[in-house]
Amino acid sequence: MFPFTYTKAADTRAAVAAGQRGGRFIAGGTTLVDLMRETVERPDTVVDISGLPLGEITTTRSGGVRIGALVRMSDAAADRRVRNTFPVISQALELSASAQLRNMATIGGNIMQRTRCTYFRDVSAACNKRAPGSGCAALEGFNRSHAILGGSSQCVATHPSDVAVAFAALEASVHLLGPDGERGVPFTEFLLRPGNTPEREHALRPGELITAVEIPAHPRPLRSGYLKVRDRQSYEFALTSAAVALHLGGGVVRAAKVAAGGVGTVPWKLTAVEQRLLGERPSDRLWTAAAAVAADDAEPLAHNEFKVELLKRTVERQLRVVGGTR
């Protein structure tokens, strides 16, 4: 670990000012500290924001839920409003990391965590995300865990967050505070695909601070759930995952929100699957047909072609769980 300056922000204004000067925000520290130990990240200044008043969960006037950026993952998962209104969020959080980490990690930190690509975390390996222009060792290396959707010639690393998949499915928005005031960004636009600039991972501007994630109201009743497929049951990142939310009325699917994790460079909204479901009567045949288009744009690598079929099966299984079988 390299030397750095530590400071604690007294309020959000001080945090934004410190961020403008290049300080890196830290709250739970479950990601940044590891990256500093591995010398992947070498910030000159670390700004502790754990004392800021961003730790509340509230219900919006429209019936949505707003989760403060500093709410602990375990607290968000256990919150009655979250669990009753959007169980897909609670399930995604409970399938993330270990209980000890969930007790420390925050919602804002979770969606900002960096990839678990082994080449990114190995400072001796070529990685355009860590060192722009150095190349991508994963393209020709062992890439079993890498992306089949949203990759580029510069990067094929997946985003590791589970709850980010649920946020993407539910079309959440990220609330930000910066030098120019407050603004909101749709969740599906907040995390960026690598393209030709894999080092740009999010839509944050210099000095901006995440204050909350807001999930809008959806038609009721809303059935939802999260399925995570991984190599082992405990403390492992997803090979594939599916966040599904369905509103059924009059015997047909009135609204469908579906996203996948473990397969994309960002949480992947499955718009084609959603469109295939709308207006149709729930049935085993429908779930199979909708899931069949989940991987239509996939570009598998040498060692992860299995993810194409696994993604379709994961989506189909979760559609059956949430929507029922007939």
What does this structure look like?
It is a single chain. With 326 residues, the protein is of the alpha+beta class. The protein has 14 helices and 12 strands. The chain starts with a strand and ends with a helix. It has 2 domains: 50 residues, Uridine Diphospho-n-acetylenolpyruvylglucosamine Reductase, domain 2 (2-Layer Sandwich), CATH 3.30.43; 273 residues, Uridine Diphospho-n-acetylenolpyruvylglucosamine Reductase, domain 3 (2-Layer Sandwich), CATH 3.30.465.10. The radius of gyration is 19 Å and the shape is globular. It is 30% helix and 20% strand. Strand 10 and strand 11 form a beta hairpin. Helix 5 runs antiparallel to helix 10 and helix 13 packs antiparallel against helix 14.
Number of strands: 12
The main sheet comes to: 5 strands, antiparallel
Strand order of the largest sheet: 4-5-8-6-7
Query: Strand portion, in percent?
Result: 15-25%
Q: What is the approximate shape?
A: globular
Structural class: alpha+beta
CATH class of the largest domain: Alpha Beta
What is the count of distinct domains?
2
CATH domain topology of the largest domain = Uridine Diphospho-n-acetylenolpyruvylglucosamine Reductase, domain 3
Report mean pLDDT, rounded to a whole number. Answer: 96
CATH architecture of the largest domain: 2-Layer Sandwich
Percent of residues in helices = 25-40%
Write the element-wise H/E pattern from the N-terminal end onward.
EHEHEEEHHHHHHHHEEHEEEEEHHH
pLDDT < 50 runs, ≥5 residues? none
Distance between the termini: 57 Å
Number of helices: 14
